[in-house]
């Protein structure tokens, strides 16, 4: 007597996750986004190198420009960093004169990080330096495709309420 046991299939070679064009695995999108991130990060790192900062420093400056003075735990959350990592980045920014820590009124234990005028100047210089490199990054796309890609990625990264 035989028992009906569901037949288990092993994934075929074509369904194994890669990051090559045509990958149809459930990981395909995540792998492509990872590869795109690496490529974009390399380009932005190249733009920031002559300015003496790294992408992790720029990420914090970006939050400070956007939000104004921000406590370190919120900086960590906004940049995907941990507590120790964000402390090292803020230490670097302070040493370079690009940010300062200030006491938060009403809570002596908490300090907010604020961008300095030098930090704003460097932030603006980074955008000027990145422009030609960013154009090179999307040079292989056709007319309107860079804008379409930006729109799709924006919707993907910031889903409407209830879509996440």
What does this structure look like?
There is one protein chain. The chain has 164 residues and is mainly alpha-helical. The protein has helices spanning 28-48, 55-67, 72-79, 83-95, 117-137, 145-157, and strands at 70-71, 99-104, 107-115. A 3-stranded antiparallel sheet has the order 1-3-2. The termini are far apart. The mean pLDDT is 87.
Short note summarizing the structure:
With 164 residues, the protein is mainly alpha-helical.
Keywords:
54% helix; mainly alpha; 164 residues; 3 strands; 3-stranded antiparallel beta sheet
The overall average pLDDT, rounded, is 87
Order of helices and strands: HHEHHEEHH
> Strand arrangement, largest sheet?
1-3-2
Assembly form of the protein: single chain
Termini separation (Å)? 49 Å
Structural class: mainly alpha
List the helices and strands and how they pair.
Elements: H1 28-48, H2 55-67, E1 70-71, H3 72-79, H4 83-95, E2 99-104, E3 107-115, H5 117-137, H6 145-157
Antiparallel strand pairs: 1-3, 2-3
């Amino acid at each position: 007597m035989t028992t009906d046991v569901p037949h288990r299939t092993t994934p075929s070679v074509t369904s194994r996750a890669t990051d090559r064009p045509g990958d149809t695995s459930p990981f395909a999108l995540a792998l492509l986004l990872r590869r795109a991130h690496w490529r974009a990060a390399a380009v932005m790192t190249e733009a920031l190198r002559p300015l003496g900062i790294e992408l992790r420093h720029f990420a914090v400056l970006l939050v400070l420009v956007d939000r104004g003075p921000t406590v370190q735990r919120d900086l960590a959350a906004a940049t995907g960093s941990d507590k120790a990592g964000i402390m090292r980045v803020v230490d670097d920014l302070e040493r370079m004169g690009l940010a300062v820590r200030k006491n938060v009124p009403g809570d002596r234990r908490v300090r907010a990080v604020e961008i300095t005028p030098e930090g704003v100047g460097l932030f603006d210089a980074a955008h000027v330096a990145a422009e030609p490199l960013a154009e090179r990054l999307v040079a292989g796309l056709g007319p309107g495709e860079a804008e379409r890609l930006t729109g799709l990625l924006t919707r993907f990264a910031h889903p409407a309420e209830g879509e996440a």
